[in-house]
Known about the structure:
The structure holds 2 protein chains of 2 kinds.
Chain A lengths: L1 H34 L5 H6 L8 H10 L6 H13 L5 E2 L4 E2 H36 L4 H15 L2 H15 L20 H35 L2 H8 L4 H38 L5 H10 L3 H29 L1 H9 L1
Antiparallel strand pairs in A: 1-2
Helix pairs in contact in A: 1-12, 5-6, 5-8, 5-10, 5-12, 6-8, 7-8, 7-10, 8-10, 10-11, 10-12, 11-12, 12-13
Chain B lengths: L1 H33 L9 E5 L27 E3 L5 E3 L2 E6 L5 E6 L13 H13 L9 E8 L2 E6 L7 H6 L22 E7 L3 E6 L12 E5 L3 H9 L5 E4 L1 H4 L6 E6 L4 E5 L24 H10 L2 H7 L5 E3 L21 H10 L12 E2 L2 E2 L1 E7 L3 H14 L5 E7 L1 H7 L4 E6 L5 H7 L17 H12 L3 H12 L14 E7 L1 E6 L2 E2 L22 E2 L3
Parallel strand pairs in B: 1-10, 1-11, 17-18, 17-19
Antiparallel strand pairs in B: 2-3, 4-5, 5-7, 6-7, 8-9, 9-10, 11-21, 12-21, 13-19, 13-20, 14-20, 15-16, 22-23
Amino acid sequence: MDVQLRSVLLFLxxxxxxxxxxxxxxxVLTFALLSFSPVDPVQAYVGADMLQISPAQRDLIAQRWGxxxxxxxRFGNWLGQMVQGNWGTSMxxxxxxxxxxxxxxxxxxxxxxxxxxxxxxxxxxxxxLAAAFQGTWVDRGIRLYAYTLASSPPFWVALLxxxxxxxxxxxxxxxxxxxxxxxxxxxxxxxRLHHLLLPAFTLTFIGVANITLHTRQKLIDVLHSNYVLFAxxxxxxxxxxxxYHGLRNILLPALTLQFASFGELFGGSVLVEQVFAYPxxxxxxxxxxxxxxxxxxxxxxxxxxxxxxxxxxxADLSYQIVDPRIRxxxxxx
Amino acid sequence: xxxxxxxxxxxxxxxxLSQMWAGxxxxxxxxxxFDPKLAGSSDQIVLAIGGEREEGFxxxxxxxxxGSPLFQSTLLRRDENLEIVNDLATGYTVSQDGLTWxxxxxxxxxxxxxKPVTAADVAYTFNQAARSGGLVDLTALKEAVAIDxxxxxxxxxxxxxxxxxxxxxLGIVPQHAHGPDYARKPIGSGPYRLVQWDEGQQLIVEANPxxxxxxxxxxxxxFLFLEEDAAFAAARAGQVHVVSVPQSLAKQTVEGMKLHAIxxxxxxxxxxxxxxxxxxxxxxGYPIGNDVTSDLxxxxxxxxxxxxxxxxxxxxxxxxxxxxxxxxxLPWEEPTAKIEDNNPDLARQILAEGGWSxxxxxxxxxxxxxxxxxxxxxxxxxxxxxxxxxAVAEMLRPVGIRVNVEGKSWDDITPLMHSNVVLFGWxxxxxxxxxxxxxxxxxxxxxxxxxxxxxxxxxxxxDLAMEAPSEAEAIPxxxxxxxxxxxxxxxxxxxxxxxxxxLDHTYFVHECLDIGQPQVQPHGHGWPITANITRWKWTCN
Lengths: 333, 541
C-alpha cells in the first residue's frame, strides 16, 4: 500500500514539475514571439480613427496598457501578477482575462466535447470497418473520405458545409450560439443544440479522418499477425477476431490518439468558430492575436497548454486502467 | 459471413440517414415556427450593420463616437444637415479667449436608474474621459468643473474650435454608477437601455421609458454582429430589416427590401510625398520625400488627368461621388476648389509647362533625366482601393506618367508612406482631420500629414480655424485653406493630394421601415446610420 501511495505521489510530482516547466517555456516563448510581432497594439486599438487621435492621446493609450515599457519589463510585471493569480486585463475586451476565457470556454466546451466524442467513436468505428474489409469497396470508400478530409483545410470544409446546410437547405442556423433576438432565459436547450450542430459536426468530420486512418493501419497490422492467423486456423469468426484480438490491441494507440487530439481539436475550433461566427474561445484567440492583446493571448495559450496537458495526463492514467500489464508494472516498480 | 456483415453496414447507413432526415425535418419545422417572432414591426426590428465594440459601451473609452450612443445622450448633436443643435444642453457660451466653455443643462433629464443628470455627472464624464486613455481625445481639456447643478465649465489648455465635436460625441455617464463594470452594464440618459449583450453575437436594446426626448418609433432593436456575407444571407432569408452591404453587393436585389445609397465623406485619395528626397528621415528613420511627386506639375497633371466619374461608375458601381477635397458635402467644404477633371490634354500641357517631355519616346515623360514614375501603395486586403489604384494607373498612362501599383499590409506601408504615394481613406465630421492632414506641424512621422506637406499660408489658415471661438467662425478659415482664389492645398493650389472618390454607404432596408433623412456619413460603413434612429418608423401594420 505504501509503495503504491509513494508511486502515485511520485507520478503526481513528476507530472506537476513537467507542467510547471511547460508553462514557463510557453510564457517565455509567447512573449518572445509577440515582441517580434509587427502589429502595433495602439494602432490596432485606434483603427480607422487614426486622424482623430493626437500623438498625446496615443501616449496616454500606451500608458494605460503599459505598452510604453520594454517587453522585458512587461514580462516581469506580468509574471509578478501571474504568481499572485492575476491573469491581467484583456485590451480587446476591457475585461479580466480569466473572465474572458471563462465566458468563451463555456460556449466552446460543448462544441469541443461533442466533436471529441463523436470523432473518437466514429473514427475508431470507421477504421475498424475499413481494416476488417481491407481492399473492398467499403475500405476504399472510407479511405477516400479520410484522405479527402485529412487533406482539406478545415475552414474550407466549414464554408462548404455552411453553404450547403445553412444557406441552400436552410436546415441549420447561419451563425451564432443562440437565435437572434432571443433573451438568454428564453433560449431552450434544443435551440442551443441546433446552433451547435453544424460547427460540432464540422469539427467531427475533420477530426474523424486522422483517427480512422491510424486505427485502420493498426488493425491491419494486428490482422496480419501470427496469432490472428492461428485464431483463424482454429475457425474463429471475423467478429470474434475483431473483438478478442483486434479491439484489445488497438485500444491503447486509439486512446493515445484520442487524448492527443485535444490539441488538434483546439486548433480546429479556432478556424471553425471563425467561419460559423460562433463566439467561443477560438474567435477570442484570433482577435487577441490580430490586435496584439498580449495578456489575453498569453492567457489563452496558457489555458490551451493546460488543456492539452490534461489530455495527455488523462491518456497516461487511462493506460493503467485499461491495460493490466501497465498496472502490474507500476506496482512492481 | 461476409454478406451478412454487409447487410449490417447497409442497415446502419440507412438508419443514420433516416435519423439525419428526421433531424432535418424537425429543424426546418423549428425554423419556420421561429420566423414570425422575428418579423419586423414598430415593436421590434433586426439590424445587421456591424459595429460591435468588444470593449463595451463606455463613452469615456470611446463608445458612441459614430451614430447614436443609444444608452447615453450627448450635450449637443448634429441634425440631418450636420448643423449643431442642443440635446442635453440648453445652450453654451465660449469666453472671449476661447478657453472657457460654459454649458447649461436641461433640468428634466434623468438616467435610466431614475437619478437626475447633473453638472457633476458632466464634469465627471469629461475629466474621466480625459484620463482614461481610450478613444476620446480630450488632450485639449484642462479640467471640467461643475459650477452649480445645471451649469458646467470646461476649461481648455488652448483655444480649439473643434472642441465642440467632443460635446457632440461624448455620451454623459452617471458618476454614481460608473466603474469597471459600467461598459457591460451601461446606465445613461439615452433613448434606449440595454437588455442583453451576447458578445460576438447580438445586442438587444429597448426604449428607455425615462428618456426626456421624443419616444423612439421602434421599441426594441436587435443588432446582429455578422460577417458581411452572413449578414447578406440573413437579409435574403428575411431575418433582418436593415443590413449594410459592400457596394459590390448593392446591385443585387433582395425581396421586400429597398436599397439606400447614403452619401458619405468616406473618401479615397492619393497622398503625395511633398518634399523632394533629401535623405531626411522621420524620428523612426523612415525616408521622407519623393523627387517625382515633389514637382507641382506632376501632382497637378495627375489631378486633372483622372476621370473621377469613371472611377465612381466603374469601381463603385455608381455608388459614390467624385471627391475634390477631403470634406465633400460637409459645411466647411470650399465649393470653388472643384476642378474640371478628365482632361488629359490639360494634364499634358501642365507637364510640358513644368518642363516634362518624352525625349526618348518610351511613352513616359522625363525632366532632367528623371522619369515621371512613382509607386502607389494600397492595403492589399481592400479590393476597392486595389481597383481604384489600377484604374488610376491606366488613366495616367496616356499623359506620360507611369504608375506602379503595389498592395501591402499596413505594417509594410508604414515605413514607406512618407516617400511613396499611398491610397488613403479618411472622412470625419470633425474638421480636426483637415488640420491633421495638411498642417506642417502635424507631420511627425505618423499618419498625420504623412506626405510632409508644408505651406505657410495653409498653416496660418488652419491655425486661425483652430483658434476661432466657434465652428461657424472657423468655417471661413477651413475653406480658405482649401482654396481662397489664389492658393490652398486642393488641386488648383498645391495639389497636395489627388482626391478620387467618396463612397456611398449602401444598405438594404425593409420596405416598411422609414429611416428618415440620414446624415452625410463619416468614414466607417454601418453604425453611423443609427444617428437618427429614434426617428425611424415602421410604416406597415
